[in-house]
Amino acid sequence: MTTRLNPYISFRDNAREALEFYHGVFGGDLNMSTFADYQASQDPADAEKIMHGQIDAPGGMTLMASDTPSSMDVADASNITVSLSGDDESELRGYWDKLSDGASVTMPLEKAPWGDYFGQLTDRFGIGWLINISGQGA
């Protein structure tokens, strides 16, 4: 098996909502398991929260997420940004448009000094995203 690097995002109570949103953005297969599914909840309030969720999207992209149990602190997401880059303008603009729904756009998706199209936003779940469209056709 090839080694892969992919984002794993931690949420407090809205991993299901976030995963369903990202599934709408990226498509592919979505699988979610709750803490109750594996009898892994010490707090009954955590039972139906997502212990592990995974989207396997076309093109080999994988995005994972889970809810953080109430007994643990949630990691600060401000020091991580998810980057999407490539030369498929239509695909990347489509991701941008969908991720922008309810987002705070920090930098609009526009021509950058290095010649690519680049944009940055923080989505409705507080996750930072960078999109870079490379190539002459952008």
UniProtKB/TrEMBL annotation:
It comes from the Bacteria. Pfam families: 3-dmu-9_3-mt. Residues 6-131 form the PhnB-like domain. InterPro entries: Glyas_Bleomycin-R_OHBP_Dase, PhnB-like. This is VOC family protein. It comes from Georgenia daeguensis.
